[in-house]
Amino acid sequence: MFIPHTDEQKKDMLATIGVARFDDLIGALPKNLVRPKLNLPGSMSEMELVRHMEELASRDHLAQSYLGAGAYEHFVPTAVWSVALRGEFATAYTPYQAEASQGTLQSIFEFQSLICELFKMDVANASMYDGASAAAEACLVAAKHTGRNEILVPETVHPQTLRVIQTYLAHSGARVTSVPCPNGILEPTVLQKHLGPDTAALLIQNPNFFGCLESHVQELSDLIHKAGGLLIASTYPVALGLIAPPGEYGADIAVAEGQSLGLPLAYGGPYLGLFACKNELLRKMPGRVVGQTLDADGKRAFVLTLQAREQHIRREKATSNICTNQALCALAATIYLSLVGKNGFKELATLNFQKAHYAAQVLAKGAFAPVFQHPFFNEFVVRCPTSPEKIVERLAKKRVLAGLPLGAYYKDRADQLLVCVTEIKTKADMDQFGDLLAEAAR
Amino acid sequence: MNGEKVVEPLSFEKSAPGRKGLPWPVCDVPVIQVDKQIPANLLRTEPAQLPELSEPQVVRHFTRLSHLNYSIDTNFYPLGSCTMKHNPKVNDRIVQIPDFAGLHPLRPHELSQGILEILYEVERWLSEICGMDAFTLQPSAGAQGELTGILVARAYHEHRGEKRPVVLIPDSAHGTNPASVALAGLTAVTVKSTADGQVDLDDLLQKLTKDVALVMMTIPSTLGLFEPRIQDIAKKIHDAGALLYMDGANLNALVGLVRPGDLGVDVLHVNLHKTFATPHGGGGPGAGPVGVKKALEPFLPVPRVAFENGVYRRKFDRTNTIGRVHGFQGNVGVLIRAYAYMRLQGAEGLRDISENAILAANYLKAKLTPLFPKMPAGACMHEVVVSGEGAFGPGVRTLDVAKRLLDYGYYAPTIYFPMIVPEALMIEPTENESKETLDHFVETFRTIIAESKATPDLVKTAPHTTPVRRLDEVRAARDPRLRYKP
Ligand SMILES: Cc1ncc(COP(=O)(O)O)c(C=O)c1O
User: Fold this and answer.
1) Ligand 1 mutation pick, B174, B181, B225, max ligand atoms within 8 A of CB
2) What digits encode the pLDDT tens for the residues B185-241?
3) Hey, what CATH topology would domain A78-336 get?
4) Any idea where the domains of chain A sit in the sequence?
5) Which terminal residue of chain A has fewer beta carbons within 10 Å of its beta carbon, N or C?
6) Domain A64-72+342-441, second-level architecture
7) Is residue B203 part of a domain?
8) Which residues of A touch B26 (CB under 8 A)?
């Protein structure tokens, strides 16, 4: 199917090589172990495969979802993947030979420019694996840059991001200190108590895991900077159509899960780690970066640059071990942002805001009152009259996902449900959702 | 544009105020005032300056950019170590099935049975192919797989009360190996290679102290060679209380032919974006699943996928786990593609692929031998590595020849890697390239070598026919311009 050689040609090739049979080429393999019997299913034709995959997919068919918590169901315009999956993009490797890879290189340059614009940061790299590893690598950069070891992470940061940070930091000398946020956001007075001479950075997530905007970002930023640490801000790109970007409140490093920018949910990946920072941190930045230059004829051209930071040059002294990143996802995000455009992006954020606030009202009327009074974007926590797990289970039977019960993540929030509403929900959807919830709570 | 000549303007340079590529629906809920809900200091002060373009402009812009690339779909792409094989088109269709694309990663398991079955089977089949006992699918690429594998090995030793701070790595290894070791808080110590590119066994044994946690070997090596003493080496490593890690980037040479676990490998990663035909996407995404022997399984990242009483579940209750390396379950879209690839091939098809990859590499090697005085003797596995020394005209380097190949419509092989081969060319044809293509490629090499002797400047200033000519990389690094500025 994918192998072009005829039997005749194979014979010719072996003759050219000068061996009698194929096995003469693999004489170095231990004879007693060669060609083990593999217990794998038999091969399928393409037609059978498509039917099989469609059947597997249909098992998990869903009517509606109000799950967010770091992965968001946004509308993906058709042009995004119709262009991104072109073979010239999808089947190219990392653009090592720049002269034959200008399409990839220029699109990465545009990607970096777009992310800098969104975040209001100086520089952005060509992507990280996902939002969580971007946050983890940001913590490592902060520790190295400040020569300090403590990373403050408020409870309002995604618990799974925290787990990845802990894995990455485990043997780095740096450590995570959790900062309590009983009120759903980080209070400056609480932060103050945790700052010390070993504080390398404060990592905030804004909007935070509970959907709340961190209301005191500017004070938090001033406090951590006064203490000699860096501010790392993790954010939700779509929210930046409305809310202040990390650069506006003085973040030194901005990271995000970029999935909301045109990528499907796909059960968790491939997603898109966004990483941007101030100029001062450029040479400590992990990952690839594309720069503008000229060719021998004076034409503008793009090339992988500042590679002296990277593993293939610096080996164990590299700023990170990352090599393959999420380039095609970055391309999709680039196409998405180019298509949505300046005004469209603000409109999109506004739609999310309006719909989520309407849904919050509907839910509040049905005895699902908001837990926090802080401003929010498109996600919020409600208190459930009965067990959130039960409610989710009941709605799941109707193929509706009600949201994320918080009890598994926070013991003291066992009665709470995190609900997300994006632009794709209609008023009718949300009214029906309100009815379903009310019914499930009875 | 500062008077520069431009191949394709940036999207930003085509923007005009007020243009729109994607209208959003009218808001169908009662509109409330944003600034009544969110205080002004938390709101964005000015909109992000995204380009303003129509849909046809966007489509044409990116389609034109795509035309500036070489790719597998358009060119022979013999990039060694990267296994640039055909990416089945049916997989593009499969990952876009709405019920796959729409799967939220935090869904309860009752609503994820189809996808969990896929993940469970991918783990099982990779275990079968590699001769390992368990796999995690979480790592997003080879390098993250390395980090995961090293952390797992470290946790295993520590759990047994042993502190082993050192990892031995041959000098032919890929740069991610030492970088991953450093990230795992261990020390990389280099092991020398012999003149024929195999591990220097004396040097290895001398360094194999009780401080060694792990020996990381690429199998077949980055020279495209299978280490015939591997079982013996594995035994010595185990006798010293250390573990054998296999960088599985080159697994395309082994599938169905020999199982790493049978050779004595304790932990390995595989690159699905190489051996299992998922697209490289211009640099990613990939997937770097990690396989281990039984003794290491308790340390794998969570969540694990389990099948109990006819139901698939995600399991988090593993007290000795190293934690998470991915925010969710890994690059699942890539894993679905690998699943589909294995289903298309079956066991025999997969073995056939490895055999044909080896056949093609040896054929190329035989045909190229008269052109390269330093071509090593003997058979190679799936790729051929050769020094350019002595092959080209005066002052012509491997880099120049690589650039000249672009003029003839070939992407360049990997060059200057592995570092122990001076002026290295690493050529990996994969199982997909026809004999005709391989023959033509060799003829092109012959032509370029002749050019390098007759008209060396022509080669030294190549490429000449690509959208841009050779780039000023020094300028890019000295004065970094990393984003559009109006
Ligand atoms: C031998 C070898 N090891 C490790 C890697 C790293 O893999 P990845 O790029 O998927 O992180 C590569 C490929 O780039 C490789 O060729």
Assistant:
1) B174
2) 999 999 999 998 899 999 999 999 999 999 999 999 999 999 999 999 999 999 999
3) Aspartate Aminotransferase; domain 2 (3.40.640)
4) 64-72+342-441, 78-336
5) C
6) Alpha-Beta Complex (3.90)
7) yes
8) none
- Establish if B244 belongs to a structural domain: yes
Which of A338, A355, A398 is the mutation pick for testing B, counting most B CBs within 10 A? A338
Pair (B55, B133) in one structural domain? no
Q: Which residue has a Cα nearest atom 16 of ligand 1? A: B81
For residues B160 and B158, give the distance between their C-alpha atoms in angstroms, rounded to a whole number: 5
* Number of domains, chain B: 2
Q: Does residue B108 share a domain with residue B50?
A: no
Reported pTM: 0.98
Q: What angle do CA B291, B293, B295 make, to 5 degrees?
A: 130
Same structural domain for residues B55 and B179? Answer: no
The answer to whether the CB of A286 falls within 8 A of the CB of A322 is yes
In a domain, B234, yes or no: yes
What is the predicted ipTM? 0.98
At A24-65, the pLDDT tens digits run 999 999 999 999 999 999 999 999 999 999 999 999 999 899
Pairing state of beta strands A175-179 and A150-154? parallel
Residue B249 in contact with partner chain A when CB distance is under 8 A: no
